[in-house]
Amino acid sequence: MAAQSPNVRTCGRLLRGFLYHGKLKSTSKLPLSFSYYSTSASASASATQAAKKIPPSSKKGRLLTGATIGLIIAGGAYVSTVDEATFCGWLFTATKLVNPFFALLDPEVAHRLAVSAAARGWVPREKRPDPSILGLEVWGRKFSNPIGLAAGFDKNAEAVEGLLGLGFGFMEVGSVTPVPQEGNPKPRIFRLPELGAIINRCGFNSEGIQAVAKRLGAQHGKRKLDESASTNSTGIDEGKRGGKAGPGILGVNLGKNKSSEDAAKDYVQGVHTLSQYADYLVINVSSPNTPGLRQLQGRKQLKDLVKKVQAARDEMQWGEEGPPPLLVKIAPDLSKQDLEDIAAVAVALQVDGLIISNTTISRPDPVDKHLLSQEPGGLSGKPLFNLSTSVLKEMYILTKGKIPLIGCGGVSSGEDAYKKIRAGATLVQLYTAFAYGGPALIPQIKAELAECLEMDGYKSIHEVVGADCR
Ligand SMILES: Cc1cc2nc3c(=O)[nH]c(=O)nc-3n(C[C@H](O)[C@H](O)[C@H](O)COP(=O)(O)O)c2cc1C
Q: How confident is the model at residue 408 (pLDDT cuts 50, 70, 90)?
């Protein structure tokens, strides 16, 4: 019986949320199961009511109605006996049903819908604990798993709680620009579904740092409350397991305005306004859709920029936890010399981490033959995997494994994540595969990754980092 109530409550919450937000009316036209989940008494009452409304036309009709009601009640009764983990698995699997519907919509409309759904909590919440082999500590923070949501999905921090609740070990909001800006004209996101890829030229559409700070401020306060509530009820200090966003870790990715003449000033503004909410900060100098941005990856430019941003962060008042780690996100389209320069700056200035990589302006085979290959913008997804993984490997070797690296680009399975870790990544991020696969992909990737580690006899992620570079 103890296992029943959370399921029933979850269902009730989802349905109530759906009814309330979707402005649907609970009339006799709605399925019986809606009221079934509230209480069993009301369930049978509504079942009787509904049964009354069906005209007792023929014996066949009465039999059919009786059988349907019986099936629904039996189904409901069965659902209420399964344990929470099984029920949670069902919810995640069920999300696959909406993927074909999303695929019919314009990519940006679909994306908007997905973010809104997550912001309203209309997505499943991961209740199953992560396999313990996936837990790791980076920058003094405990991650329950190394799989994160990459920047660009929740640019304005609208859905942090819902997205982290899907079971990501961490997520990154942004890129956020100081002043709100529209980004490039639409259409600016193009699907290449047969290749598991996307071309985008969003150009930092952002509501700006003030809007994001306001949202994170409100959520942050709420999460802190949630955290103390869970500490009280379980006796475990949840805060130590996660970051400022509760049990998950939250990164804030900073960008610059298109019209800004002084890039460093933009990033410093981002640090001043947003770093208090961030478990880590990212200087994004690798988007291909903001003119001149990638030039900031040059040795001198990067050195000047990182120094200024680090100084801005360190001048602020920090508690005993200290300032958030500062990472740099780089492009995959860099020469050997560029990579050596970046590695030298990163090591010399003790940059806390590198994210490798952003999207590519190249069009590797077979993308070059695709109808949309000539659309300007950055390519992400499966065709980016090899390129971004070889840059990751190169950077791991150049930095001698001294700097935590986040591997990003084309990850769509646990095996891909495993390859990134073997190539030098301590943490892994994805965007495009999640956009195609939806919430069900997250538990799948985690389970597959745990299996890869176990099959090769490893006991932890840290043991594997850079295994292919040794
Ligand atoms: C539509 C779209 C928007 C993106 N916006 C950002 C962004 O604002 N900032 C950023 O650093 N990366 C952005 N990215 C890049 C992703 O964070 C990631 O680095 C890249 O897509 C490679 O990962 P993937 O192959 O798993 O998608 C964006 C990617 C896509 C597809």
A: very high
Residue 372: helix, strand or coil by DSSP? coil
The model's confidence at residue 142, banded by pLDDT at 50, 70 and 90, is very high
Average pLDDT for 166-181: 97
Exposure string (b/e) for 153-174, b if CB count within 10 Å is 16 or more? bbbbbbbbbbbbbbbbbbbbbb
User: Can you tell me whether residue 181 is helix, strand or coil?
Assistant: strand
State both tokens at 73.
């009640």
Contacts of 338 (CB under 8 A, 6+ apart): 297, 298
412 CB less than 6 Å from ligand 1?
no
Q: Which of 45-49, 57-61, 312-316 has the lowest mean pLDDT?
A: 45-49
Question: What is the residue type of 377?
Answer: G
Reported confidence tier of residue 191, pLDDT bands at 50, 70, 90: very high
Displacement of CA 346 from its chain's centroid (Å): 26
- Whether ligand 1 lies within 6 angstroms of the CB of 432 is answered as yes
* Rg of the chain over all Cα atoms, to the nearest angstrom: 24
pLDDT digits (tens, 9 = 90+) for 54-76: 555 688 888 889 888 888 888 77
The three-state secondary structure class of 404 is coil
Question: Which atom of ligand 1 lies closest to the CA of 198?
Answer: 31
pLDDT at residue 346 in the model: 97
Six-digit token string for 5 = 């109530």
Mean pLDDT of 373-391: 97
- What's domain 91-469's superfamily in CATH? Aldolase class I (3.20.20.70)
Ligand 1 atom nearest residue 384's Cα: 25
Mutate to test the pocket of ligand 1, among 359, 367, 375, 427 (most ligand atoms within 8 A of CB): 359
Verify whether residue 44 is a known catalytic residue.
Answer: no
Lookup: tokens for 197: 């890829």
The catalytic position among 144, 206, 287, 388 is 287
Residue 302, classified by CB atoms within 10 Å of its CB into exposed (0-12), middle (13-18) or buried (19+), is: buried
Tokens of 219: 């959520």
What are the residue ranges spanned by the domains of the chain? 6-81, 91-469
Q: Judge if the beta carbon of residue 264 lies within 6 A of ligand 1.
A: no
Cβ–Cβ < 8 Å for 354, 346: yes
| CA-nearest residue, atom 4 of ligand 1 | 152
